[in-house]
Write a structure and sequence with these properties.
It is built from 12 helices and 18 strands. The chain is globular and about 60 Å long. It is of the alpha/beta class and about 350 residues long. Helix 5 crosses helix 6 and helix 8 runs parallel beside helix 9. Bound molecules: zinc ion. The site of zinc ion (ZN) has 9 residues, from helix 2. Zinc ion (ZN) binds next to helix 2.
Length: about 350
Amino acid sequence: MLAVTLHAPGEIQVENIPDPILDSPTDAVVQVVCSAVCGTDLGSFSGVDPVVPGQRMGHEFLGVVHDVGSAVAGVKLGDLVVAPLSWSDGNCEFCRKGLQTACVVGGEWGGRNQGGQAEAVRVPHADGTLLRLPGSVDSELFPALLTLSDVMAAGHHAVLSANVQPGDTVAVVGDGAMGLCAILAARRRRAGRVIMLGAHRPRLDVALRFGATDLITAREDAAIAEVLDLTGGSGADAVIDTFGSRQSLMTAIGVARAGACVGYVGVTHQATWIDIHKMVRRNISLCGGLPPARAYMPELLPEILSGHLDPSPVFDLTVPLSDAARGYTEMAARSAIKALLRP
Ligand SMILES: [Zn+2]
């Protein structure tokens, strides 16, 4: 089968590798229908994050169950499923708390593990990991459903972590797919005003479509000044950072109202220092972390199926799996927001 691998920064290859097979009774093998390139995949592609030569790529995929181990009860051959960004057993202390990203037997796709950017994937702990979709789902909904793997779930996690309340003014730092999904998630929580801090016109157009009320294209101190100006000098009630760099976090902290929470969903692998003195006097807290997408899928799924929630506009480029390198290149050049890959 074909699978995307990374050999050095910028060196994406689509290689022929052995088909995945069951390794444990709790495994399933999923034939991938569509997968995606994530902003976090760009970390290693651009050389910001370390590269394991030949590493597998991708942690978002939707597909059809092709084989199941003898202990798998929750999915069967032919089921349409979507996988979250990490696998988990659904049974341990952390899974039961809805923190599947901390599962004691869990793991993450990519690197030395299986990757979602492939024609097929072996899924450990299939019962805890995979979300079964209704068999009758229209394939037009596949891109929206694929966002449950990561970006829509991450936007939702950031909004919950930032404790967004109805009527709140919410500031979202970062105009990537995750930031855009955070706007949808803030709207779901009936936020009043949603201020998007971003820089790229096509992304800002999607931000408006998703419900952003104000756009700020300035950066750092100038952006902070504009948000303060828009909020009567106090700052936003809740702030979301989806980028995770020192600069984005300091902007997020700078635009937060006293007592507000900054929800974050990850950080870059670069050393990320934040100035806690900027937080302490105004009681700003920082909440969040790796999004437990599996916990949120059951809640978000019906809204996507009914069309009330449609994150699919984050995919503005579709390429065949064999041309995955183009997806990476265009996203790195900011000429695409997010690439959908079809085997
Ligand atoms: Zn677990």
